[in-house]
Amino acid sequence: MAVSSINGGAAASAAPNPIKDKVASQDDFLKLLIAQLQNQDPLQPMDNQEFAAQLATFNSLGQLIEINEKLGAMSNGQGSSNQYNAASLIGKEISAEGNQVGLSSGSPATIGYRLGANAGKVSLGIISANGELIRRIDVGARSAGDQTLVWDGKDSSGKSVRPGIYGFQINAVDVNGKPITAAGKLQGVVNGVRLDGPEPVLEVNGVDVPLSGVTAVRASR
User: Fold this and answer.
1) pLDDT tens per residue, range 48-84
2) CB-CB neighbours of 108 under 10 Å
3) For the chain, where are the E strands, in sequence order?
4) By C-alpha distance, which of 196, 192, 191, 188 is closest to 214?
5) What is the pLDDT of residues 185-219, one digit of tens each?
6) Residue pLDDT, tens place only, 15-24
7) Helix and strand totals (H; E) in the chain
8) Which of 61, 138, 144, 152 sits a CA distance of 20 to 30 A from 181?
9) Helices (DSSP H) in the chain: which residue ranges?
10) Positive or negative: CA dihedral 140, 141, 143, 145
11) Could you tell me if 216 and 114 are in contact, meaning their C-beta atoms sit under 8 angstroms apart?
C-alpha cells in the first residue's frame, strides 16, 4: 500500500487544475471545432445539423463575451460617476432619511422630519447613544410636510449634553388624538466623503449618509 507524505499531499492539492482554472474563450472554442473537423471519421462525417448547432454556439459565445465586457465598462464608469457626484456635494446642504442628528460643541442642532398629515400635537424625543431618553420636546400643532426643530443641545434638566451622535423619535397625532405618519430627516452640510466602500458615504455633522440615501441637495446658507 502506497503512503503519500503530508507535504506531498499538500503540494498535490495546491497544484493548479488546468481544466478548472482555464476559462474558455472564442479562440479555444474555435481550435476545438477545427480539431474536431480534422479528426472526424471520413466514413461518418459530422452531421450538418450538429455542425450548424456548434457554429451557433460559437456565435453566442462571442456575443456573451462582448456583452460582459460592455457591462464591465459600464459598471466601472458608473462607479467613477458616483464618486465624482459624491465629491461634488462637499460644502452642500443635503437631506436624507434617518433618525440621527449630530451635535457639535456649543452649537444647536437642527432636526428635520416629515408629517404625513396635519398634526394637532407633535412631540420629539432625544435618545442618547445607549438608548436613554434624555429629553422630550413638545412642538405643538404642525401642518403636513417637511418641518424642522432646533435643539439647543440640552437634556430635560437644562444641562448641556456632550457633542456626538443622537437619535430622535417623533410622535404625532391629529386633532382627534389619532396617530399620523411621521418620519425623521437628517439635514446638514457635507463635511467630507469616504470612497473606500462599495458606495460613497457622506459625512454630515459626524453622521454617515450613503449617497443613495440623499433625497435633496441645496446650496449651503
Assistant:
1) 566 556 666 666 666 666 666 656 555 544 555 666 6
2) 13
3) 93-97, 100-103, 109-115, 119-127, 133-142, 145-151, 164-173, 182-194, 201-204, 207-210, 214-218
4) 188
5) 888 888 888 888 788 888 888 888 888 888 888 88
6) 444 444 444 5
7) 4, 11
8) 152
9) 6-14, 18-21, 26-38, 48-87
10) positive
11) no
Whether 13 has a pLDDT exceeding 50, the answer reads no
Per residue in 75-90, pLDDT (tens digit) is: 544 555 666 677 888 8
Closest by alpha carbon to 175, among 141, 210, 132, 219? 141
Burial bucket for residue 15 (CB in 10 Å: 0-12, 13-18, 19+): exposed
Residue written as cell 454556439? 57
- What pLDDT was estimated at residue 25? 59
| Rounded Cα–Cα distance for residues 59 and 115 (Å) | 57
- Cα–Cα dist 111/108, whole Å: 10
Judged on CB neighbours under 10 Å (0-12, 13-18, 19+), 105 is exposed
Q: Which domains does the chain show, CATH number per domain?
A: 25-34+46-87 (no CATH), 93-218 (2.60.40.4070)
Other CB atoms within a 10 A radius of the CB of residue 3 amount to 5
